[in-house]
Design brief:
Number of helices of chain B: 11
Number of domains of chain A: 2
Largest sheet of chain B: 6 strands, parallel
Strand order of the largest sheet of chain B: 2-1-3-4-8-7
Radius of gyration of chain A: 20 Å
Strand content of chain B: 5-15%
CATH superfamily of chain B: Thiamin diphosphate (ThDP)-binding fold, Pyr/PP domains
Shape of chain B: globular
Structural class of chain A: alpha/beta
Distance between the termini of chain A: 38 Å
Largest sheet of chain A: 7 strands, mixed
Number of strands of chain A: 14
Helix content of chain B: 40-55%
Structural class of chain B: alpha/beta
Radius of gyration of chain B: 19 Å
Oligomer: heterodimer
Strand content of chain A: 15-25%
Order of helices and strands of chain A: EHEHEHEHHHEHEHEEEEHEEHEHEHHHH
Number of domains of chain B: 1
CATH architecture of chain B: 3-Layer(aba) Sandwich
CATH architecture of the largest domain in chain A: 3-Layer(aba) Sandwich
Shape of chain A: globular
CATH topology of the largest domain in chain A: Rossmann fold
CATH class of chain B: Alpha Beta
Number of strands of chain B: 8
Helix content of chain A: 25-40%
CATH superfamily of the largest domain in chain A: Thiamin diphosphate (ThDP)-binding fold, Pyr/PP domains
CATH topology of chain B: Rossmann fold
Chain lengths: 356, 323
């Protein structure tokens, strides 16, 4: 049997872009630092060498203007991939993205579309602080006309990115920088994961955890640990916020009767509240307990690791919430995940020595 | 010097735009055009002069005040009126209204209502055409207030860096809504500011269509030689209120005297006099032209007004394109 082909998430994105550029000469990639030696955490490395300066571009530090430029180019047959190393930079582009990109197809009578992928990197850790470590998916997902995806695994990083490049609408893909170096099995050929479909990553009958991005990794770790305690958690990777796959979560909750949401962003007016509302509207009477949600407190992300220590949810936070919802003794959460006490909480893995 | 055919054509186009917009103003109180209208009466020469130097395959983008740009590029009048009346036959199927005009048949790619917002989009269109080596030129129209938006500077920088085939047409009409330029920008010329981007800059009288045409032709020639973007600043004046059908010289932000001074430079009157002086057209021919335009335009208003209202059931399919 052939050995499974393992790639990092970053390499999987790179491969999706590479193969999409190979398949369609209209695809270009542009962004601050795209051709530089770091290649956006490795996701664009090598593309300049392969496709040259007519398809791979650095750009002026003009996020709003260049978003407009990409929208204009997309109206004329170019399929741009625009990359922001930090989601925080993309805030400068909201006029173009929201007033033009998201609406062009609608406001001109469905005649011209905007095939544009905007990759934004979200994240946390190593003291990046208030305006360099936000998770702003809720802002994008609020806007009709945008598609919003959050690939969590290397397989989806490739398959969803490829679909986003092929889609004829503006797609925002939020990549958490803590998953960039995670390895997973990735098929070699170009393939397309559907936009707007959640994915059940682990089957279970006791409780449904639906999570976004890096929190999927955390939720999976919790679910696997709880298995040995006889607790069967169903883990759903939400994958796509817009379009949103309601039925996968509905079907799961109809079975487990319990729902916990875990998101990388703030709670207020966010993803978790939106999804809970949708489920409660349809399954209220079937629920065995109130749905719960885990996310960030309504405070900007601080820099000092002394301040971020309890800022982010972790495997224990998630475990505690699950145990409470199931009416189990929460004391066992403290005994689990002993590594958390010894590991630095502000790095994605022990070898990381910063900066991002 | 421009030949007589093009001069008469430009006069006819300006008169057509003027007639259309005066009819919009006349009929607006009927309450059937239920959207904002920003009339370009007084500013017709810029749209007509520039667009007459462009090919059908060249692209144009506009702004909130773009009836003239749309019509000068050859946009379908009936569809524009139907759009303003909110009808399904409208160029944007009634979803946009007066500020969201599009006619892909003539490459009028769109007008959008946020100041300067179409400038980077037009720059991207020009970039795409350059990447594709089509030789097509893009023109984008905006008011002088666009120079107060950061995105204009971002676009000029990118266009200069890449020598893009684009004409930036700045219609300097002195006012942003009710606020005079002197309260918004320091006393320096817009042209000098833009020269700093290493962009070719021309200035001129925006109410003299011959001057606009000749200037735009120079711009096109420079672009065709691969010399990169051209910025044209043209002086003009909006006759009516910022938004709506009325005159508003009485409300206190500008004076009747100022308006009367500018009215003397009416682009239609100027060209009409030239055509008559040069004996390129006769009075009776001009009368006939006005009459026939008036009848045709009136018919299209009636057709638009009596066309079916949009009963479109809006769903996600209208928001997202199929892939």
């Amino acid at each position: 049997m052939q050995k499974p082909r393992l790639l990092t998430y970053a390499a999987a994105i790179n491969e999706a872009i590479d193969q999409s550029m190979d398949a369609d000469p209209a695809v270009i990639v542009i962004g601050e630092g795209v051709p530089d030696p770091k290649g956006i955490f490795g996701t664009t490395s090598g593309l300049m060498k392969k496709y040259g300066p007519k398809r791979v571009f650095d750009m002026p530090v003009s996020e709003n203007g260049m978003t407009g430029v990409c929208i204009g180019a997309s109206l004329r047959g170019i399929r741009p991939i625009l990359v922001h190393q930090r989601v925080d930079f993309s805030l400068l582009s909201f006029d173009q993205l929201i007033n033009n990109g998201a609406k062009w197809y609608f406001m001109f009578g469905s005649q011209q579309s905007v095939p544009l992928l905007v990759r934004v990197i979200i994240g946390r850790g190593w003291g990046q602080g208030p305006a360099h470590a936000q998770s702003l998916q809720a802002l994008f997902a609020h806007i009709p006309g945008l598609r919003v995806i959050m690939p969590a695994t290397p397989r989806d990083a490739k398959g969803l990115t490829a679909s986003a490049i092929r889609d004829n609408n503006p797609v925002i893909s939020l990549e958490h920088r803590w998953v960039h170096q995670i390895k997973g099995q990735v098929p070699e050929k170009l393939y397309y994961e559907p936009l707007g479909k959640a994915k059940v990553l682990q089957r279970g009958t006791d409780l449904t955890v639906a999570a976004t991005s890096y929190e999927v990794i955390e939720a999976l770790a919790v679910a696997q640990a709880l298995k040995s305690k006889g607790i069967n958690i169903e883990v759903i990777d939400i994958r796509s916020l817009k379009p949103f796959d309601e039925s996968t979560i509905l079907n799961s909750v109809a079975k487990t009767k319990r729902l916990l949401l875990v998101d990388t962003g703030w709670l207020s007016y966010g993803i978790t509240g939106e999804i809970i509302t949708r489920i409660v509207e349809k399954l209220f009477k079937q629920l065995k307990c109130a749905p719960r949600r885990i996310g960030l407190p309504d405070i900007p992300v601080p820099s000092s690791s002394a301040l971020t220590k309890d800022f982010y949810p972790n495997t224990r936070t998630i475990t505690r919430a699950i145990l409470e919802m199931l009416g189990e003794n929460i004391a066992i959460a403290a005994q689990m995940f002993q590594d958390l006490d010894n590991e630095a909480h502000d790095v994605p893995h022990a070898e990381f020595t910063g900066p991002f | 010097m421009s030949n007589s055919i093009i001069l008469i054509k430009m006069y006819q186009e300006m008169l057509r735009i003027r007639t259309v917009e005066e009819k919009i103003a006349d009929k607006y109180p009927e309450g059937e055009m239920r959207c904002p209208v920003h009339l370009s009466i007084g500013q017709e020469a810029i749209a007509v002069g520039v667009c007459n130097t462009l090919k059908v395959s060249d692209c144009v983008l506009g702004n909130h005040r773009s009836h003239a740009h749309y019509l000068a590029k050859g946009g379908d009048l009936y569809q524009m009126l139907a759009e303003i009346y909110g009808r399904i036959d409208g160029c944007s199927r009634g979803r946009g209204g007066s500020m969201y005009l599009v006619d892909l048949q003539v490459n009028f790619l769109g007008s959008v209502p946020i100041v300067a917002s179409s400038i980077p989009v037009a720059t991207g269109v020009a970039w795409a055409e350059k990447l594709k080596h089509t030789g097509q030129i893009t023109a984008v129209f905006f008011g002088e207030a666009a120079l107060e938006e950061g995105v204009t500077h971002e676009a000029l920088n990118f266009a200069a860096l890449n020598k893009l085939p684009i004409i930036y047409v700045c219609e300097n009409n002195l006012y942003s809504v009710y606020t005079h330029l002197k309260f918004r920008q320091p006393p320096r010329s817009i042209s000098n500011l833009v020269k700093g981007y290493s962009v070719t800059v021309f200035t001129g009288d925006g109410n003299d269509v011959i001057n606009v045409y000749e200037t735009a032709k120079q711009a096109v020639e420079k672009i065709e030689k691969g010399e990169g973007p051209v910025f044209i600043e043209l002086a003009t004046y909006r006759w009516r209120e910022h938004c709506g059908p009325n005159f508003d010289n009485n409300i206190g932000y500008r004076t009747e005297a100022e308006f009367q001074k500018w009215k003397k430079t009416d682009p239609l009157k100027k060209l009409r006099k030239y055509l008559l002086d040069q004996k390129l057209i006769s009075e009776p021919e001009l009368i006939l032209m006005a009459k026939s335009l008036n009848i045709n335009i009136e018919l299209l208003f009636q057709k638009a007004k009596s066309s079916p209202k949009t009963g479109e059931l809006l769903t996600e399919n209208n928001v997202y394109a199929k892939t």
